[in-house]
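B., you asked whether I could sanity-check this one before it goes into the benchmark set. Here's the sequence:
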Amino acid sequence: MTDGIETVDQEVPENADGSKISVAGDFLDRVAVLTSVNVSLVLSPGRRRDNGSRVLVPFVSLDMAGSSILSDEPQSYVSEIISLDNLAFLTAALANELQRVTTDYVEVIEGSAHLDVVEQSRLEAQMRKLLGHAHTCVEMISATGRNADTE
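And here's what the prediction gave me:
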């Protein structure tokens, strides 16, 4: 069911004037542009070890694809099956790291470096999407009325 669920695809940004930016060093060989993320629910039957009751264990298939910044040839960067709670951990950890590097970035640009306004607006838009999706996830889980501590 995909009603109301947005597909996450990222277009490779271009500068407003179409110009390219050069950087020193050879680290660009390792820079990837992730252009798609796909997460699919996978339920597996299992048994509780304490009482042997049957349960469904939620996993997700996580796929991330894109290309090298130096090539348009598509590549798969991540293709794993992880537990649903591990996906929540990964998302929270990425959000935490995003906050940390954003803090570093803001400290730099408040000094002598300046960000193109177009880039800043893209960054703000992606962060607003993140907030919306996180809020929706919390509301959906809360609406179940189930609490792991009471089961």
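One thing to flag: The chain has a mean pLDDT of 82. Otherwise nothing jumped out at me.
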